[in-house]
Amino acid sequence: MLTSHEKEQSTKRTDVRLIDCDVHCYLHSLDELIPYSDEWLQKMMNFGKFNNDFLKNQTAGSFDFPKTRYHNPNHVLRLDATTPNGGVPGSSPSFVIEDLFERFQTTYGILNVGHGTMSSYHNADVTIAYSSACNDWLYDKWIGLDERFKMDMVVPTIDPQATVKEIERIGKKSGVVGINMQNISIPLGKRFFWPVYEIAEAYGLPIVLHPDSEGSGEYAPSQFIGPASTYMEWHSSLSLVPQRQINSLLCEGVFERFPNLKFVFVEYGFSWMPHLMWRLDKNWKSLRDEIPWVKMLPSDYIRRNVRLATQPFEESFHPKDILTIIEMIKAEDMLVFSSDYPHWDGEYSTKIFAHFPEDLKKKVLYENALKTYRFSSGKED
């Protein structure tokens, strides 16, 4: 929750433009999807029987989005971001504009659905139909309202052919700037996903990875050593996911095969990257005969193909230590700003970048995202 001082500070206009790569939008009710759904999907998801705030206790037999088995004992959303009419935080486009964009002077905010992407859902047909309905709802309700809203389309990750069809259906629409492809139990480097990467690269759309249902559901990856016992333990272990996925993408040759495709890891932090880069570089020098398709230093591929959102910003004992990490691995072009609005641990003040040189601040807050996501012209307006 923002203090009055933080709100006052955030209203001050920055001297650089800003692209927020992780703004969460929510359904207030499943019934919002009725205009975009056929009768079969409405029946499968119990539309019309679920008119209350979906965060409240649900009645027996009603549909529930797949979600992690862990919950924040306070709340995962900022309760001070509840809409003026008492709606779910992030469910009102006009209030997001007022509560976030106007205070940050946001140039563009990239929307990632917060209520669930269904990538770990057990019924592939429901996942496919829901993804299309959700994308149409998101485009009509949000993108059409204000040109500052952009969106990462959701896709049925468990079915790559259906994912390709959904990208073909809406991937060239103005305002669609990325593909939100959540984690499932198949490592991202596997050839299972290559048809998706081929069309994503052709369309100029980055692949976005964001926490959703890790640790639960039949399609969600475990965190290697078994389930956590608490939300604290689970939340603090999320950085294991991008380390494993980047390792897979690199070693399977995805970065070599799709040199222009960017992978954006959102809400995983970034201070773990030196270890991953250095370990991959060291092992490649001795084991590259095993993966001859990896022709450059792994760290060079990672700098070219991987982008990391800044939230959660790991605050060290000495603020300048984070800057040292960035300089050590030459990550100046890899970082993109994200607020994670309206989550409890979001970044609601750019003062965390106070120690950054101005040229680096401009890259992180605006320029890197402009070059990574597929904006209308690919150039600054």
Automatic annotation (TrEMBL):
Keywords: Lyase. Signal peptide: none annotated. InterPro entries: ACMSD, Amidohydro-rel, Metal_Hydrolase. Pfam families: Amidohydro_2. SUPFAM superfamilies: Metallo-dependent hydrolases. Coiled coil: none annotated. Residues 134-375 form the Amidohydrolase-related domain. PANTHER family: 2-AMINO-3-CARBOXYLMUCONATE-6-SEMIALDEHYDE DECARBOXYLASE, ISO-OROTATE DECARBOXYLASE (EUROFUNG). This is Amidohydrolase family protein. It comes from Bacillus lumedeiriae.
